[in-house]
Design goal:
- The chain is an alpha/beta fold.
- It is built from 9 helices and 16 strands.
- Strands 8-4-9-16-10 form a 5-stranded mixed sheet. The protein has a 5-stranded mixed sheet with strand order 13-12-14-11-15, with helices on both faces. A 3-stranded antiparallel sheet has the order 1-2-3.
- Strand 5 and strand 6 form a beta hairpin.
- The two termini are about 20 Å apart.
- The N terminus is likely disordered.
């Protein structure tokens, strides 16, 4: 698809049509292609249908979204027969453990607790933290010095609030009870910046509530200690061949441009 590799934020990215596409794959892993395949069984994917743009119900009720379509592309790449079933988000891991499905494809954070119970691929999506500001203010790109005495809206008690305090100590943190309230304050010019989850901010920037007021400023922040490892495809611990095959397929989808194609479809405003 002709995306150009660039360096920006904390991870290598590609850029196409003005949208930044994250690259989470290590080039060295291309030398470790697996030979085994998960067999001829039908692989059952479990997801949730209420978290757009990652996974949601399409117009006909069929699950879709970036994660779901990526799972379908993995199936096609591995020439596997697959099904996708939507369940309530909080039941997905228990359903996987009870063998009601084979893979969870949903926005369940990768954590040590999850990895102690299940296998997971390397992350195919992460949760970048971003600064957003009004486009008419001419504010500087965020840095420890640039944010001195500048007001920054954060959700009180969040990882973003903790990160702001640790790395931008001279900024004036303005805590809000929720992100929507912080975004509204930014739109009205009551704070200089908002620092929060990039995915939610991207949806707001591209939506009607922002009314074109605001845009990302500066790069992304991906520190695991604050913002987690991201999400991957989760399988049972007794299914290592399937897990390795999924990992390999995700790498190949990136190499072949399919990941970027799907990303552009579901993220008109990139959180990265």
């Amino acid at each position: 698809m002709g995306a150009a590799l660039i360096c920006g934020g904390d991870a290598p990215t590609a850029r196409a049509d003005g949208v930044t596409i994250p690259n989470f794959w290590n080039p060295r892993s291309r030398q470790e292609r697996m030979e085994s395949q998960p067999g001829t069984r039908t692989v059952r994917f479990l997801t949730d249908d209420d978290f757009p743009p990652l996974h949601f119900a399409g117009p006909d009720g069929t699950p879709t979204g970036f994660v779901v379509e990526l799972a379908r592309a993995v199936c096609e790449r591995l020439a596997m027969s697959c099904t996708v079933q939507a369940r309530r988000f909080d039941t997905l891991l228990d359903a996987l453990a009870d063998r009601q499905g084979d893979v969870v494809a949903a926005a369940i954070p990768l954590t040590p607790t999850l990895r102690a119970r299940f296998l997971a691929t390397r992350p195919y999506f992460r949760w970048p933290a971003r600064f957003v500001a009004r486009t008419d203010k001419g504010l500087p790109v965020p840095s420890a010095a640039a944010l001195a005495e500048k007001s920054v809206g954060v959700v009180g008690g969040s990882a973003h609030a903790a990160y702001l305090t640790a790395f931008f100590p001279k900024a004036v943190a303005k805590p809000f009870t929720d992100l929507a309230t912080a975004e509204a304050a930014l739109r009205r010019g009551e704070v200089d910046y908002v620092f929060a989850d990039g995915l939610n901010l991207a949806l707001w920037i591209g939506g009607v509530e922002a009314a074109g007021c605001c845009a990302f400023l500066g790069g992304d922040y991906l520190e695991n200690r604050y913002f987690g490892e991201g999400i991957g495809l989760v399988t049972r611990s007794d299914d290592p061949v399937l897990s390795r095959a999924l990992d390999d397929a995700l790498q190949r989808l990136w190499d072949e441009g399919k990941y970027a194609e799907l990303y552009l479809r579901f993220f008109p405003v990139s959180p990265f």
